Amino acid sequence: MRLPSITGLIKRRLLVNYRADPEIVQRLLPSCMRPKVVEGYAIGGICLIRLEGMKPKKMGLVPGLSSENAAHRFAVLVERDGGEEEAVYVPRRDTDSVLTHLAGGRLFPGEQHRAKFMIRDQEGEIDFAMESRDGTVGIRVQAKESEHFPKSSRFPDLAAASRFFETGSRGYSDCKRPGRYDGMDLAVHDWAVSALEVSAVFSSYFEDGERFPSGSIEFDHALLMRDLQHEWHSADTLSPEA
Length: 242
Hints:
Blueprint: E1 6-20, H1 22-26, E2 33-35, E3 37-38, E4 41-56, E5 65-80, E6 83-95, H2 98-103, E7 113-122, E8 125-132, E9 138-146, H3 158-167, E10 170-174, E11 181-188, E12 194-203, E13 217-238
Parallel strand pairs: 6-7, 6-10
Antiparallel strand pairs: 1-4, 1-13, 2-5, 3-4, 4-5, 5-6, 7-8, 8-9, 9-12, 10-11, 11-13, 12-13
């Protein structure tokens, strides 16, 4: 399905990243994908993003949609046309917007689940909580803006982490059609990230012991983006099982 180009503002975006056993992550990926690794680790995470003024690019002065959203994701390499492309696989998307939920697979990629978001963002400190309406996904992140990238990360520095995520601009999302994945390209104008010092982090998805056995995953680092214009462009639907 070709979705219309969408434009708007990334008001706030947190990239909360984990490092994980690549063999464990491989079990969670479609057959045409493999983990993109750093220092022997697969990289998964959550994109927690506030979007404002979102609307189809051709709609001009029509008021746009604002929403809070969460996407669980993995950095991957995808087999395409005899080669590989860098991308992100998104098995789960959540939103507080009824319109985004209804437009999933139409204006926005993949199935969009309804969720309740509770966020405090002031004076450089962020307290983020989310609970999905279906009761299956919960997220909590407490962090503050920092000038220092954590030494415990498997990335050598902030610049390396920034490059890693900037190149993975294409996303493939689970949708209601089994074996098919909605494709979307994210174009961010004047890409820029800063570091976050995280004091607490929880994701029911990544802390599910059946999905990730003990010792197979741990928090790596988090990044922050603010006030960036961006566009979403439709990419081909991925159908590896076809």
